[in-house]
Amino acid sequence: MRIDLLTVLPEIFESPLGCSIIKRARNKGLVDIHVHNLRDYTTDRHRKVDDYPFGGEAGMVMQVAPIDRAITALKAERHYDEVIFTSPDGETFDQPMANSMSMLENIIILCGHYKGVDYRVREHLITREISIGDYVLTGGELPAMVITDAIVRLIPGAIGDEQSALSDSFQDNLLAPPVYSRPADYNGWRVPDILLSGHQARIDQWRYDQAMERTRRLRPDLLDKHE
């Protein structure tokens, strides 16, 4: 998989893309991630990527020309399955979306900034708009990191124990059950006896029951999607 990130703040990606699972996946050659500075696609000496909006509204708007040049240059080199724009009014990112996107070959993620992007970008260059929640951030870089992380960890080989990802919250529209580790008794706080019993079928049923109880209590909205 290849992920191309278009941004006006390339330095913000340095740490997240160089740590943990994403770093290991990159080192293994499972994912190829490239960060592109949109200022490299400008033509003026000030490398300007924004301008005032028509109509007198406050704020600055990302210009269409640098974004078009960047996307066009990338598309000249390979086919892209999706060109994504991170936007608060896009479709809400969730686990099923991450699952399907992890099977794509090449994607571009455009990080919004300032007041937003010239709407012609959204009309002519973008194939999908994605939001990570009903709130506004300074820029689209953080959502792009969230999307990238959620996708990359699902690529086979990215996580040492691939079964671990399958039991995460939201994979089956249930919250994950409680998990415990050693010691079995800490300050009188004991691990549930069932987890120490060795009866795997009973343990699996306990985990399912706990997942259902936690989902019913904390996120009852998910139960409508659970089969």
- Counting H and I runs of at least 4 residues, what is the number of helices? 7
Named at the architecture level, the CATH assignment of the largest domain is 3-Layer(aba) Sandwich
CATH class of the largest domain: Alpha Beta
Name the overall outline: elongated
Tell me the name of the CATH homologous superfamily of the largest domain: SPOUT methyltransferase, trefoil knot domain
**Tally of domains:** 2
Q: Provide the low-confidence segments as ranges.
A: none
- Secondary-structure element series: EHEEEHEHEHEHHEEH
Q: CA-to-CA gap between the ends?
A: 30 Å
Mean pLDDT across the residues is 91
Short description:
It catalyses: guanosine(37) in tRNA + S-adenosyl-L-methionine = N(1)-methylguanosine(37) in tRNA + S-adenosyl-L-homocysteine + H(+). By secondary structure, the chain is an alpha/beta fold. It is 30% helix and 18% strand.
